[in-house]
Amino acid sequence: MTKAKNEQRWVVPILIALIGAFMSILDSSIVNVAISTMMHVFNATAGQIEWVVTVYLLALGIVIPFSGWAGDKFGQKQLYIFALIMFTFGSALCTLSWSVDTLIISRIIQALGGGLLMPSMMTMVKKIVPEGKFGTAMGIVGVALLIAPALGPTIGGYLVEYVGWKWIFTINIPIGIIGVVLAFFFLPVFEKGKVEKLDTGGAATVAVMLFCLLLALSKGGDWGWSSMPIVLLLLVSLVSFCLFLYFELNLKAPLLNLRIFKHRNFTFANITTFVTTVGLFSGIFFVPLYLQNVKGLGALDTGLLMLPGALASGLLMPVVGKLYDRTGPKPLAIFGIISLAVTTFLLHNINVNTSNTTVAYWMILRGISMSFAAVSAQAASLDSVSKLEVGGASAISNIISRVSGSLGIAALTTILTSRISYHAKAISTQLISAGTDISLQSLQIQTSAFVKGLDDIFLIASVLTLFGLVPALFLKKMKTESNE
Predict the structure, then answer these.
(1) What is the pLDDT of residues 410-438, one digit of tens each?
(2) Looking at the structure, do residues 194 and 205 belong to the same domain, yes or no?
């Protein structure tokens, strides 16, 4: 067999491993479009039905820290298959749910499997891919990981509107079964790592820390950031974090080896990811709000309008991955961050009359920018660690990505609420001064205030994105050498 054929043998296992990760990410967004339908079916309040989404995100975040230890103890292939079975089983339970409570429990089971899929897949990618091809591999991975969030509302909107809301879960069952069978036969068996008994102190503190933090970020806007529950959640999270640091830095075999931050690229790549995620989510989260609340589009039409940007990003991912193997992360990250900031600033020009075509064009430009920023940072974070360290490194990177996304959305949403209130008062004052009866224009005032608030959000996000240039400047190209 030729060398070229040998090198390409890693592509098939990676594509198989992507099945589970793609489904897990897809399910983080696909349920949102069915919320109103499920609320009607189960005769539930908005507060009750929101937990269907919230518990999935909480359980997903809590289980991620255990992925590195579990992969080393039981084997990455075994962990991946177990996680995919649990995710598929949880999806089946969701289709059989007869109440909000049973659906919430089913979603927790689904997320416990889904949370292990992403870091397990990333670990296997690192172990499978030959030297000098990691960027190319991450380009392939990025195709699925960036398209999945965009496909969620599109697929979900179609299924809810034309088939039935339970199909957003039913569709996972055959795909999950096929994924398990393919993984069993085609994924290589990885050598188990040397692991000590589970670090219970680190496990307990990181679980409490992430649960409290993610719950506070998720509910802060609804409950009030100064409310007693949110303040207590943040305090408990902070105390748990301090205890977690104590355990992890003083144990011989910690759950998460924080000393991995000694790797320069790993540290700066994750800082880059943390900062640029704010700019990334400003478009993914707030543009659909604009399309639905201002332009009056439904979930399906909104998803279809967002899809070209995701496809542009996905199609460019493999190209960016190959460029990474040649140039290293720094030039790609710098270009990606600058262009992401510029394209986010373009959204600052959105108004009530902006055409859907213009929005789609801006999102395509953002999609191209994201492909450069995402591949360079994600690849650099894991490319710098050894294959023995990759399990823990993947878990840490996934935690940082998840927390930064939740933090970015929470912070920007809070600012948006404040700016909408400010602009509504300013517009009302102007109309009153002109002698206009504002009671007849309340809807127009709120719409205009909402759009102006979004303009402010995109401006802030574009500026914050530029701060990602600082850590990106310290990224270096890895030397081609064995890191066994």
Answers:
(1) 888 888 889 999 999 988 888 878 777 67
(2) no
| Co-location of 171 and 204 in the same domain | no
**What's the pLDDT at 267?**
94
* Cα distances (Å, whole numbers) of residue 358 to 234, 296, 309, 365: 40, 16, 12, 11
Amino acid, single-letter form, for residue 108 = I
- Measured in whole angstroms, how far is the alpha carbon of residue 430 from the centre of its chain? 41
Domain end point (choices 177, 198, 219): 198
Q: Report the C-alpha gap between 255 and 203 in whole angstroms.
A: 7
Q: Residues 187, 299: one domain?
A: no
CB 174 within 8 A of CB 99: no
Shared-domain flag, residues 274 and 423: yes
The span from the CA of 483 to the CA of 387, in Å, is 7
Residues 238, 235: Cα–Cα separation, whole Å: 5
Rounded to whole angstroms, the Cα distance separating 261 from 331 reads 22
The string of pLDDT tens digits covering residues 162-199 is 888 899 999 899 999 999 999 999 999 887 777 778 88
Same-domain status, 296 and 371 = yes
Sign, Cα dihedral of 114, 115, 118, 122: negative
The total number of structural domains in the chain stands at 3
**Residue 1 reports pLDDT greater than 60:** no
d(CA 465, CA 460): 9
Residues 365-400 pLDDT 10s: 988 898 898 888 888 988 888 888 888 899 999 899
Report pLDDT digits (tens) over 244-296. 999 999 888 888 989 899 999 999 999 998 888 877 776 777 888 888 888 88
Can you give the pLDDT at residue 7?
52
Predicted model pTM? 0.88
Coil, helix or strand at residue 118: helix
In one-letter notation, the amino acid at residue 366 is R
Distance CA 142, CA 336 (A): 14
Same domain, residue pair 352 and 323:
yes
Helix H or strand E encompassing 310: helix 299-327
Choosing from 237, 254, 271, the residue where a domain stops is 254
State whether 297 and 431 are in the same domain: yes
Residue-number span of the structural domain to which 203 is assigned: 199-254
Q: Name the 3-class secondary structure at 483.
A: coil
Q: Is the dihedral of CA 43, 293, 169, 221 positive or negative?
A: negative
**Do 116 and 228 share a structural domain?**
no
Half-sphere exposure of 115 (CA within 13 A, CB side): 26
Query: Residue 325's domain is classified under what CATH number?
Result: 1.20.1250.20
